Amino acid sequence: QDLKRVATLESWRKKASSKLAEIVEARIKWAESGAPVPNEEEWLEIAQLSEVAESWPRASEYYRKLSEVASDPAKKAEYSIANARALQHWGRYSQAYETANGVVKSDVRGGLREDAYQCAGLALESSKEYAKALKLYDQFLKEAENEKAMAWAMLRRAFCLEKSGMTEAALNTYRDIIDRYPKEFTAPEALVGSGRIYEARREFPSARSSYDRVIADYTDSHKVIEAKSHLQALTAKEQDWEGIKAELSKMSERYPKRER
Question: Is 37 left (phi over 0), alpha (psi -120 to 50) or beta?
């Protein structure tokens, strides 16, 4: 089934690439003939097809153009966020952040503002600017208008704390997410995050408990596969750690304290 889905997606991508090439070629000929510049609908079609074809530079170019010509503030914000996402996929993280943060600084509210915060934060994470991302997520949490947005911001904040080496603060945040939002998609992700920290600390029973809970309580989550993978690796790590402790114990018996 997975192979069929991959084959279908690849087929769609090839068709989109072919259609995109036709549209771009037609636009070039149109421009060369001195015809008027294509309208907003045609630009949007090229941008969307570029996304499907994973032609991120072209998608970014057309979403940028659309954001520049849009007169409606909501449309301008929507195109700017789409441009930021294309830049993110393209690997232009700094530009992605600046573009998304421009929307954050605007007067746009609601879902578009949440999208802008998320895009800006993920761009900073991709650049490994975790301290800056933490400040952004703190700001987002003050403005978040619903539980889903708050849970997401808390999860990303916990991840940034974890990557910054502040594992105790990260673990406390992961626990808070699991307790406060047990039915949100963030709960299994927080459990996996907790498991990673326990694993790094060699607290293997706690790590195993976190991964087991993902598999038992969140069967529909995409994190189940990751939890199973961690569990498989965990068994080997436990055995290695037990072997190390046994060797240390033997050394301790062989070389009494006064001789060491």
Answer: beta
State pTM to two decimals: 0.80
Q: What type of residue is 139?
A: Q
Place of tokens 């195109």: 79
13-27, 71-85, 119-133: least confidently modelled range: 13-27
Half-sphere exposure of 1 (CA within 13 A, CB side): 0
Q: Kindly give the residue spans of alpha helices, DSSP state H, lying in the chain.
A: 2-32, 40-52, 56-69, 73-90, 93-104, 111-126, 130-143, 147-163, 167-180, 186-200, 204-217, 223-254
Alpha carbon of residue 195 to chain centroid: 19
User: Which residues contact residue 27 at a Cβ distance below 8 angstroms, ignoring those fewer than 6 apart?
Assistant: 38, 42, 46
Please report, as a single letter, which amino acid is at residue 8. Answer: T
Residue 248 tokens read as 């240390």
C-alpha to C-alpha distance for 191 and 227, rounded to whole angstroms: 9
Of 143, 93, 95, whose CA–CA distance to 122 is shortest?
A: 93
Instruction: State whether residue 107 is helix, strand or coil.
Output: coil
Cα maximum dimension of the chain = 93
Find tokens 């045609």 and name the residue: 42
Tokens of 5: 């889905």
DSSP 145: -
pLDDT tens profile 199-253? 999 999 999 999 999 999 999 999 999 999 999 888 887 776 555 555 556 666 6
Q: How far is CA 231 from CA 39, 191, 217, in A?
A: 54, 13, 16
